[in-house]
Design goal:
Length: 138
């Protein structure tokens, strides 16, 4: 099985439709939590490696093998970070957090942000989800 980017898929599907071939598309859509949606690898049962000591790991909506980790060094520095949450999912999403968000995460406050869109889906990442206050949005 070969991987196609969106443009290649569209071109080949168009040619298949013109030729009268039936095209079946599977594993498309938004992928709600717990539905096993896996656009390109990974899966809801794929366990990412444990995060390093002193780091913070975010909870990821509709997760299928991603992991969002801010290292202890990044938390200590308190500057803006960009995190690739690929882990074992087989594809990447980026999460950008400004310095203020990193400092709030370091201080134990809840922070929520959306990842970039890849393979027609994105994820919401929440750090310190157990914090009692409503998360700050970035």
């Amino acid at each position: 099985m070969r991987k196609l980017n969106r443009r290649q898929f569209t071109q080949e599907a168009g040619l298949a439709f013109l030729a009268g071939v039936t095209v079946t598309v599977s594993a498309c859509g938004g992928g709600g939590a717990g539905d096993g949606y896996s656009p390109t690898g990974g899966g809801t049962t794929t366990n990412p490696p444990p995060a390093p000591t002193g780091s913070k790991t975010g909870q990821i909506s509709a997760n299928h093998g991603h992991q969002a980790v801010i290292t202890a060094a990044q938390l200590q520095a308190g500057g803006a970070v960009q995190i690739d949450i690929a882990s074992t999912a087989g594809h990447s999403h980026m999460v950008a957090l400004p310095a203020q968000a990193v400092q709030e995460i370091r201080d134990g406050k809840a922070v929520q942000t959306d990842s970039t869109t890849t393979d027609a889906h994105m994820h919401t990442v929440t750090f310190n989800a157990e914090a009692p206050e409503e998360p700050s949005r970035y």
